[in-house]
Amino acid sequence: MKIIKKNQLTILVLALMLVTAGYLNYNSNQSVTTESKIASIGDATLVSSNSIVSNNNIQDNVSSNTTNNIVSNSNLANNTIENTENSAEETNSDVKDTDYYTSSKIERDTMYSEMLESYQKILDSSTTSSAQKEEAQKEITTINNTKNSIMISENLIKTKGFEDCLIYVNDDSISIVVKKETLNKEDTAQIQSIIAREMNAKLENIHIMTK
User: Measured by CB atoms within 10 angstroms of the end CB, which terminus of the chain is less buried, N or C?
Assistant: First the structure.
């Protein structure tokens, strides 16, 4: 009986040892599996976090590029507007100058036309004396000669490189307005030479201005 009990006790101890070993092995496997899962989850979180950071960087870059483009386009628009305004101002200035010379010449020629018409009426009048008609004819000749001299002089001055000019005659005094910012001595001498020759004027009676 004692031998049987000792054998049974030995078997029981071995069984308990096997059970204990199996339990420990199971817990160890569970721990490895859990750690593997945790590591896996950690990796997934890290990848997701990196992805989020990357996406945020992309969004920041897109936003930055968009902002830069907007600023660049805004600056371009401002520069375009400014250049357009400057160009418009220059164009308006040129137009005003051109209008000045054109309108002044029209007014001058209209004045001469009205004077010629008045003297022609004197010639055509049956009540006008011979002396009056003779005087009227002299004035008509003088006006036509003056108009012709002005036209020739203005054209000759423009051939010297001046964009435009305007000539007024008041008895012996002759005024010339030249379209140029400044005149040097050579410019002045050229204009004086033309006026003196074509209009039979003295140098002291020639007055040159710029506009």
Answer: N
Whole-angstrom distance, CA of residue 161 vs CA of residue 93:
20
Longest CA span, the chain: 186
Q: Which two tokens stand for residue 200?
A: 């039979």
User: Distance (Å, rounded) from C-alpha 135 to C-alpha 154?
Assistant: 28
Identify any residues that bridge with 170 across adjacent strands, giving them in sequence order. 173
The total number of residues shown for the chain amounts to: 211
CB 112 within 8 A of CB 147: yes
Q: Is residue 132 exposed (0-12), middle (13-18) or buried (19+ Cβ within 10 Å)?
A: middle
- Residue by residue, DSSP assigns 119-187 as HHHHHH-TT--HHHHHHHHHHHHHHHHHHHHHHHHHHHHHHTT-S-EEEEEETTEEEEEESSS---HHH
